[in-house]
Design brief:
Largest sheet of chain B: 6 strands, mixed
Number of strands of chain B: 20
Order of helices and strands of chain B: EEEHEEHEHHHEHEHEEHHEEEHEEEEEEE
Distance between the termini of chain A: 44 Å
Low-confidence stretches of chain B: none
Shape of chain B: elongated
Radius of gyration of chain A: 25 Å
Largest sheet of chain A: 6 strands, mixed
Largest interface: A-B, 40 and 40 residues
Mean pLDDT of chain B: 92
Low-confidence stretches of chain A: none
Helix content of chain B: 25-40%
Oligomer: heterodimer
Distance between the termini of chain B: 39 Å
Structural class of chain A: alpha+beta
Structural class of chain B: alpha+beta
Number of strands of chain A: 20
Number of domains of chain A: 2
Order of helices and strands of chain A: EEEHEEHEHHHEHEHEEHHEEEHEEEEEEE
Mean pLDDT of chain A: 93
């Protein structure tokens, strides 16, 4: 199989006065699963459609393999696209829906049959080959739609929110199936989603986009542990990272962060922060799962808060604390005893928080 | 303020989602959630309490009063829907004030109540804006404000957070729970989202096909589901299930499947007393399974790592056991590669056993 890396260079797409995609550079390596992640309107779907050949870029180049494909039609690019709304032919059986892309390529009958059965087996739809689309559950329909895409064995798969219309349980199951399928097929996949959990769980690398601009492109773990700006920090993770505004204070060679409600001595990051911070206004970011809750401080860094709401969630619980006007969430085990009004310590270690410059929104620590 | 009681309420005619024999008692100041997949009848129940539908049989009480014959207005309940019905031509202030104006409340009184409600909901700075200028979360807060400003006896909220994005839903969940406690009023909340139900309610009423199948605290619903339906509906990822059967060997009772053998001699009597036959389904939550790289004992389940799903704080590990995928939730990170052989164990206190035929819990 030819190498199917995908690269876009300086890609720009404007719709009237709006720049949907702004000077995007992105390289998707061969056989990788890359997610384009962002809120609606961030440019992720426009990017995917340009790669597919369904939109023409205003500027920039698109490469599939080593070939510049800007001037190729969608069919010539040898990509397969799966949409949120599974486009199946309602009058054809599952078998014929799967066979259709091959018949269009004039593949021999025995070859078509072999391919349909193989794909049906991979996707677990063998038993429903004689069904019509209106007899299928949404999960089955989506699997058939994916089958139609993979049966041609294209170089690159482009998937646009394929799981969005499924219910939560089915989505969780299909996530694992799709990830495994991509590894088994060993083909390049570019997957568009607004769901950070899908991106985290499935992708080799995530490209986080916002307002047409690429915010960060890295592995899920790096994006989760070392987000490089406020947007990425807040977008990845659920419940979302806690943000508390504060002011830097220097005295006697020590540096502290004053939130108005508490002070944190952050002298160990003094040089870095003073070099990078554009002003004295910063945001402290800590993930709910990195806060340890107890009656006394238990780590190097800690502040106090009063329990505002207790949210049991079965195998864990969220405690909501009110710190000034900000709600800070912490994850605790389900057996944790806490009641509204309790004053408790929230402790965390040096690897578990971020300092963000308020003006530039860049993560400093 | 008042409790709500439904006595053998049935509604079969004129609805796509019928309900049968609903017995429900909501205490004064209680936050109760009707949890069910869509189309199971929870909205039918809400609409009957509100007076928007008439039951075929049974009585509905608010406080001590039987309200079957009362109009919605006479019942003094407030309902908030999934799609927030705001007047587009009125400001937020006008929208909040309109239920009071309809009651001919004095102007001063209206002014002070609007201010109070706006403060509680954090929308004081939006009072002069129009609905089209608001975000989804702001609109929903105004809709809730319109409901609470009248200080009705009972609040009915039907999927009020469903149209909000995930982050805002998490935020509003906590705010609504806090608000209900501060107002100290009875709230009946309908949702299909198990996390909303678990996190907010004093008590959850699970409904399936128009019937109540379990009514308990969130902790009980999660830890002791009485049926396979409740067990799999509540919890993400859902509980793992294994088909199995009881067998006797050398005076011991074993729970046996193609992938494990468990000695459950101590539980045998209890199980047999409740079982309809010899076939069972064992359920274990993903968070109650442990993964071992070496075989830890005889009582374990062998499988291969199929996919790792890192989620940040936790990783869901999909393990292929026979032809089934078993999901295991582990904290932090894991250094095992797909294809690696692993063994799964769980504490017997954490297992759930269901009768395969009746789908009811037997432990």
């Amino acid at each position: 199989m030819p190498v199917a890396r995908v690269e876009v260079k300086g890609l720009v797409k404007r719709f009237g006065k709006i720049t949907a995609v702004d000077k995007l550079n992105l390289e998707v390596e061969d056989k990788r699963f890359v997610c384009l992640l962002g809120p609606s309107g961030c440019g992720k779907t426009t990017t995917l459609r340009m790669i597919a050949g369904l939109e023409v870029p205003d500027e920039g180049e698109i490469y599939i393999g080593d070939e510049m494909v800007n001037d190729l039609t969608p069919a010539e690019r040898d990509v397969a696209m799966v949409f949120q709304f599974y486009a199946l032919y309602p009058t054809l059986t599952v078998y014929d829906n799967l066979a259709f892309p091959l018949k269009a390529q004039k593949t021999s009958k025995s070859e078509v049959d072999r391919s349909v059965r193989e794909v049906a087996d991979i996707l677990g739809v063998t038993k429903i080959l004689q069904f019509k689309p209106d007899q299928l559950t949404p999960g089955e329909s989506q699997r058939v739609a994916i089958g139609r895409a993979i049966i041609r064995r294209p170089h690159v798969y482009l998937l646009d929110e394929p799981l969005t219309n499924l219910d939560a349980k089915l989505r969780a199951r299909m996530r694992a199936e799709l990830k495994r399928l991509q590894k088994e097929l060993g083909q390049t996949a570019i997957y568009v989603t607004h769901d950070q959990l899908e991106a985290m769980t499935m992708a080799d690398k995530i490209a986080v986009m916002n307002q047409g601009l690429l915010q960060e492109y890295d592995t899920p773990e790096n994006i989760y542990r070392h987000p490089n700006n406020l947007f990425v920090a807040g977008f990845i993770g659920s419940p979302a990272m806690n943000f508390l505004e504060g002011t830097l204070k220097e005295a006697d060679g020590r540096l502290s962060l004053d939130s108005g409600e508490f002070q944190l001595d952050i002298t160990e990051f003094r040089d870095l922060i003073l070099k990078e911070a554009k002003s004295g206004e910063v945001i402290l970011g800590i993930r709910p799962e990195h806060l340890s809750v107890s009656s006394k401080p238990s780590r190097k860094y800690a502040f106090q808060g009063e329990v505002y709401v207790v949210e049991p969630l079965g195998d864990q619980a969220i405690l909501d604390f009110k710190i000034g006007n900000t709600v800070v969430r912490a994850i605790v085990p389900p057996s944790f005893k806490a009641e509204v009004g309790n004053r408790l310590w929230l402790s965390f270690s040096k690897d578990d928080f971020h300092i963000v410059d308020k003006a530039t929104e860049k993560v400093i620590v | 303020m008042a409790g709500v009681r439904l006595n053998k309420v049935t509604k079969k005619t004129g609805t796509l989602c019928p309900v049968f024999d609903i017995d429900l008692e909501v205490a004064d100041r209680e936050f109760i959630t009707l949890l069910a997949p869509s189309g199971s009848g929870k909205s039918t129940i809400m609409r009957m309490i509100a007076g928007l539908e008439v039951p075929d049989e049974g009585e509905i009480y608010i406080g001590d009063e039987m309200v079957n014959e009362l109009t919605p207005a006479e019942r003094d309940v407030a309902m908030v829907f999934q799609t927030y019905a705001l007047y587009p031509h009125l400001t937020v202030h006008g929208n909040l004030a309109s239920p009071l104006e309809a009651q001919k409340t004095s102007k001063d009184e209206i002014g002070s109540r609007v201010k109070d409600v706006a403060d509680i909901l954090g929308i004081a700075s939006l009072l002069e804006k129009y609905p089209t200028q608001l975000s989804g979360g702001e609109m929903q807060r105004v809709a809730i404000g319109r409901a609470i400003i009248r200080r009705p006896r009972v609040y009915l909220l039907d999927e009020p957070l469903t149209n909000l994005d995930a982050k805002l839903r998490v935020h509003m969940r906590a705010e609504l729970k806090r608000l209900q406690k501060e107002l100290g009023q009875t709230m009946i909340y309908a949702t299909h989202d198990e996390l909303e139900a678990l996190s907010m309610s004093d008590r959850i009423v699970v409904i399936s096909n128009g019937r109540i199948v379990q009514s308990d605290t969130p902790k009980e619903i999660f830890e002791n589901p009485k049926s396979l339906f409740v067990a799999t509906f509540v919890g993400t990822p859902p509980m793992n299930l294994f088909e199995c059967a009881l067998s006797e060997r050398k005076g011991q009772t074993l729970l046996e499947s193609s992938v494990f053998k468990l000695n459950i001699t101590g539980l045998a009597e209890l199980i047999r007393s409740k079982a309809s036959g010899n076939d069972f389904i064992l359920g274990v939550r993903p968070s109650d399974l442990k993964i071992h790289a070496q075989k830890p004992s005889e009582e374990c389940i062998e499988g291969d790592i199929y996919v790792l799903e890192p989620m940040g704080a936790v990783v869901v590990v999909d393990v292929k056991v026979g032809n089934e995928l078993v999901k295991v939730k582990v904290p932090g990170s894991i250094s095992l590669e797909p294809g690696t052989k692993v063994w799964l164990t769980f504490e017997k206190e954490k297992m759930h056993i269901f009768d395969k035929k009746t789908k009811e819990a037997v432990t």
